[in-house]
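User: I'm putting together a teaching handout on how multi-component assemblies are represented. Below are the sequence lines for each component of a complex, exactly as they appear in our records. Could you produce the 3D structure of the whole assembly as structure tokens, so the students can see both representations side by side? Please keep the chain order the same as the input.
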Amino acid sequence: MGTNHKRLIEELLEGRKTAVELQSLLHKPFGDRESAEELLMKIMTTFTESLSVLTASNGHEDHQSAASGEVYQVKPEPSHVEHSHCGDRSSEGSGESPKTQAFKDRRGSYKRRKTSQSWKVISTKIEDGQAWRKYGQKIILKASYPRAYFRCTRKYDQGCKATKQVQQIQDNPRTYQTTYIGEHTCRTMIKASPMIIGPDLWPSQTVSSESGSPHRQNPNFFGSSSSSIPIVKQEDSKVGTPSDVTDNNVWLGLKDHLDFSEPTGICVSSNENVVSNMQWDDMVKSINFECDINFDEGFDAV
DNA sequence: CTAATTTGACCTGG
DNA sequence: CCAGGTCAAATTAG
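Assistant: Of course. Below is the structure of the complete assembly, with chains in the same order as your input.
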């Protein structure tokens, strides 16, 4: 544990340092945005790594997430999670419900996903460097745009449980709110020998003909010169009246320092408990608390 | 051809 | 019952 703790500290320090760099860059009159994005990516990587350390109490890393500008926020689900357990998709024959005509076409039969972490991101871009596969779309009542549902492409290859929901929430600058649910477990821990796995050596994963799977830590994030400087919402203590802001979100005006043409923005919904206010310690606790990593996932033979 | 998306049916929790 | 989430057949894209 000491190792993880240390590593966590290192990551966070690194992140803070980089944030400071970014800050000074932003104060320069001609800070170029390439550098800014680079720094930003660095910061986000430290977040990702930190989360990785926290969630996977082991020590593996390689969360190649967050490709282009977005800052995410982890929000421990409402603390009281009931639902006895999370057997996805009730089994076939056995415990099926009295619906006799059940298996004519049994779509659905899902239980609310329970203990997966979720975090929301608001951004003008939906790319996040992950391979997602859309599996549904729904019209949400109070929303003006439909909500799209995605799952990780490797769900069946590797049993990755990550999903996300994307919903456009605004038009002029196309703005989407993405809710990530569960972390990617794919592309790592393939043959995980029960022994220690050094944090750094991932056995090159035998480049199968995957098509361009980037090596860990995405080489080039900003593939298409996409500018995106996120604006992180800061749960201020007295933000009592967000009268003219959509929802109850508060946007921190980071972008005022930049002259990016693209009005990118990020914020985290303030619906429930947001962790911004928490101390790292508490946050760590809640995340650990929430860490459930496991292998339930009954393989469904078709 | 395979892989991804579309789209309505189907389930479940509240 | 309803709204939201998921499945899978049909369709389209690569």
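A couple of points students might notice: The longest helix of chain A spans residues 2-27. The two ends of chain A are 41 Å apart (CA to CA).
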